[in-house]
Amino acid sequence: VTFTPTVKHCSMATVIGLCLRVKLMRSLPSRFKVDIRLAPGSHLTDAAINKQLNDKERIAAALENRPLVNVVNECLAPTYG
To answer: Could you tell me which residues come within 8 angstroms of residue 62 by beta carbon, excluding any fewer than 6 positions away?
Structure first.
């Protein structure tokens, strides 16, 4: 999955990418490989963010961080309006 943040200096790009990864991990069978990337040139630090979003150890560490997991769950929660 390739996504483009709203601005080149978006501070939420990593969190958005983590939300995409978690949603896909929860929705797809484990046999699917999930690859999350920023569109080339869409962020000032796209290479570093891409590395974070596709590093199994960094993802595992992020998902052990309770406050961060709460943010991800909030982002993925259904909204009824």
So the answer is: 18, 68, 69
Q: What span, in angstroms and rounded, lies between the C-alpha atoms of 5 and 69?
A: 20
Percent share of the chain, pLDDT over 90: 94
Distance CA 30, CA 46 (A): 26
State pTM to two decimals.
0.91
Ordered alpha helix ranges (H), the chain: 13-27, 46-53, 56-62, 66-76
Instruction: Look at residue 48 and give its three-state secondary structure.
Output: helix
Three-state SS for 60-79 is HHHCCCHHHHHHHHHHHCCC
The mean pLDDT of 7-24, rounded to a whole number, is 95
Per the CB < 8 A criterion, the answer to whether 33 and 70 are in contact is: no
**Phi, psi values for residue 38, rounded to 5°:** -85, 145
